[in-house]
Amino acid sequence: MTDQPFPTYADARGDLLAVELADVPFVVRRVFVVRGVDERLPRGDHDVPCEELVVLLEGSVRFDVDSPAGHDRVVLDKPGQRLLLSPGQSISYVLDGPGSAILVLASAPHQERR
After folding, report:
1. Is this structure's pTM higher than 0.85?
2. Domain ranges for the chain
């Protein structure tokens, strides 16, 4: 589920997090960012519709992932850490406050839920 983090580079000018698309195991069709809020409200609560690679940008995030194989709790707490999600897994997650953000790379464009 998780893999080696993407590299981060820090110097006096700030931090750089590099995501090489060659390291993503699918063709990326959509990219989006989710940022935290003060209330630490749960997000997700749905089945994953396509392959998704979640990359932690800042702060931390706790995922609960359910699949036919069972339940996993995954915490990403270092920028660059990633979580690969597969279609059919059920997820919910909580960002740890307003300083937390994730980048999500998805294998399919957004489709409205019905």
Report:
1. yes
2. 2-106
Is residue 25 within 8 A of residue 63, CB to CB? The reply is no
CB 62 within 8 A of CB 51: no
CATH class, range 2-106? mainly beta
**E strands within the chain?**
2-3, 8-11, 14-17, 30-35, 43-47, 52-58, 61-67, 70-76, 82-85, 90-95, 101-106
Reported as a single tens digit per residue, the pLDDT across 27-82 is: 999 999 999 887 888 898 899 999 999 999 999 999 999 998 899 999 999 999 99
**What CA–CA distance (Å, rounded) separates 21 from 31?**
12
